[in-house]
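Exercise 3.2. Students should predict the tertiary structure of the chain below and write it as structure tokens, then compare their answer with the key that follows.

Predict this chain's 3D structure.
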Amino acid sequence: MWRWFHRLGSPRWFYQTSGRWLPWLAVLTLALLVIGTLWGLAFAPEDARQGNSFRIIYIHVPVSFLALAGYYVMAVAGAVNLIWRIKLADMVMTAAAPLGAALTFLALFTGAIWGKPTWGTYWVWDARITSMLVLLFLYLGVVVLRNSFSGRDTAGKACAILALVGTVNIPIIYKSVDWWFTLHQPATIKLSGAPSMHPDMFKPLLVMILAYYCFYALVLILNTRTEILHRERRTAWVNDLAVSELAVTELTSNEQ
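Answer key:
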């Protein structure tokens, strides 16, 4: 068990293994995105109150889910690096921070677009939106901290501590519509009950949520692989990889 755990923490093993996952994951992501988008935009029925403006839910809800889930990915990676000193975990945390920031910004942006026809304004300082803005600042804080220290170990510790402290904001975001009076609608998907959507609207939403989770995994792996190559660029295996890729490129050019 521990041998498998330490092998999983090897940047070289992860880079070589993940390379075999990427084509399949990319095809699955593309297929789910196409199916979910067409289903949600073209075939799902129009909402009785919001009309077609509700269809932004097929982007807003998945990216909002991933903004929250991605923060836990970043925080857990930071904790693993702090406890076991596994450098791949620090690479994952570094790769997850800008991706999470982009998803959080997209969640706020799509929420503002949805809010204009629904509430009559792009922005209100209610509990859900404000706590999501705090989440964006936490993600950006990790990115800034990473670039503020010359020492990689010190930067990794500081980022991990900030990420772990920031996890208290996640349940606040999730429960904000229940704890405080807010314009934001209650959760569409609840673990304790049936969804508040018609099945014809809910099924494509599930497809889009799965598609965006696959998309998150795909981009996180690509970002982590880039971080691995950057940090391991002076190692023998990366140099050998560069030489082999150059040879393949030259061979392909000669054949053409």
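Discussion points: The mean pLDDT is 90. The CA atoms of residues 74 and 93 lie 5 Å apart.
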